[in-house]
Amino acid sequence: CCLTEALDQASKSGDREALGVIYHNLAAIYRELGDYDLARRFQQRSILQLDDCRAVDLLGLANDAWLSRRSEMASCLASSCTELDSDDELDSVLLEAQATLAITVGLAEDPRQGIRSLIQVYRQHRAANDVRLMGIDLLNLSALLSELGWYRAEMDFVRRAISLFDQAPAPVSAVKARQTLGLLERMHSLRNFDPSKN
Predict the structure, then answer these.
(1) How far apart, in whole angstroms, are the C-alpha atoms of residue 113 and residue 109?
(2) Helices 36-49, 55-67: crossing angle, 10 deg rounding
(3) What is the pLDDT of residues 170-182, one digit of tens each?
(4) Model pTM above 0.85
């Protein structure tokens, strides 16, 4: 694979900056595939290769903390990421950090505040025509709607996310979202089950 070859070349030449970028990309790939432990390890290796920590590195650490159910740490890292002011940072990285912060705050403290923040992030992703991230925003919104007990809206948002992932295309995210929808539909059936009609 291209990344494996690049990793070999960077290792042989001792190019720490290239190694950091490659490890960061590997972390992103494994995070998307659902191997959060391996993603976390690659993200940590990435940080070790760099002389300073960039917003994109903090975002990776925040997402790893979130996926490890360490919401307080995720919130702190995402908040630090949004406060970085660097010319070489992309607006999209800071926007993703805002989304991570919104979901962590929404689930840990106030779902309504998280929803408001995520809607703003979603609108910016829509303006940038980033279909995959729009889908992720909708999945995060569905989780917050669940916290409020709005189960039909939760399923609606997951369906819309699937449509966006199919459009992107983002097949791994689409599969995960379909699994989530299947689980939600089963839970909906159980909630609406009336034993007297048996």
Answers:
(1) 9
(2) 150
(3) 898 899 999 999 9
(4) no
What is the DSSP code (8-state) at residue 109?
A: T
User: Both tokens of residue 35?
Assistant: 């191997």
CB 123 within 8 A of CB 90: no
CB neighbours of residue 159 within 10 Å = 15
* Residue tagged 């650490």 (tokens): 61
Return all residues near 144 (Cβ < 8 A) that are at least 6 apart. Answer: 103, 106, 107, 111, 114, 115, 118
Q: How far apart are the first and last CA of the chain?
A: 56
Query: Structure tokens of 71?
Result: 């919401």
Q: Which one-letter amino acid corresponds to residue 175?
A: V
8 Å CB contact between 121 and 95: yes
Q: For residue 88, is pLDDT > 60?
A: no
> What are the start-end ranges of the H helices in the chain?
2-13, 16-33, 36-49, 55-67, 71-83, 91-108, 111-127, 131-147, 151-167, 171-191
Cβ contact 60:97 at 8 Å: no
Please state, as a whole number, how many other Cβ atoms lie within 10 Å of the Cβ of residue 147: 15
In order, the DSSP letters of 155-170 are HHHHHHHHHHHHHTT-
Two structure tokens written together for 29: 């790939």
Assigned token pair, 98: 């805002």
